[in-house]
Design a protein that fits this description.
Helix content: 25-40%
Protein name: YjbQ family protein
Number of strands: 8
Family: Belongs to the UPF0047 family.
InterPro entries: UPF0047_YjbQ-like (IPR001602), YjbQ-like_sf (IPR035917)
Low-confidence stretches: none
Pfam families: YjbQ
Number of helices: 3
Shape: elongated
Strand content: 35-45%
Order of helices and strands: EEHEEHHEEEE
């Protein structure tokens, strides 16, 4: 079975953590050479994105942009846990990403990485990687 589970501990209230190398290890273990890879977060306040890996300011700017668009505090939020912003941000970026797999390698651009996006940390999280042949 080519389903892999990972544990990740986030340190910040909101952060983006590169997980591309973890995914590459799963691909190698699977032995699949051609297909797709799906990364999935089973959390309603954490998701995934694919974006630039060369300049750490991009991650900073993305988190700031998401905070500006969906602020942590709004007077009209009614969710009693106080994390409505995290639910909205996760719905915006999505709980999963799909990456093509060719010749045993992830098909990513030279400047791309896969990021786990935490919007309600710090927390101990898990995520799944499914490697599918095809």
């Amino acid at each position: 079975m080519n389903l892999f589970e990972h544990q990740i501990s986030t340190r910040e209230a909101q952060q983006m953590a590169k997980v591309t190398d973890m995914i590459r290890q799963d691909v190698a273990k699977s032995g699949v050479k051609e297909g797709i890879v799906i990364v999935y977060s089973p959390h309603t306040t954490a998701g995934f994105t694919i974006n630039e890996n060369a300049d750490p300011d991009v991650v900073h700017d993305m988190l700031c942009g998401l905070e500006e668009a969906f602020p942590t505090r709004r007077e009209y939020y009614q969710h009693m846990e106080g994390n409505s912003h995290a639910h909205i941000k996760t719905s915006y970026v999505g709980p999963s990403q799909t990456v093509l797999l060719h010749e045993g390698e992830l098909v990513l651009g030279i400047w791309q990485d896969v990021y786990f996006c935490e919007f309600d940390g710090p927390r101990n999280r898990r995520f799944y990687v499914k490697v599918m042949e095809g």
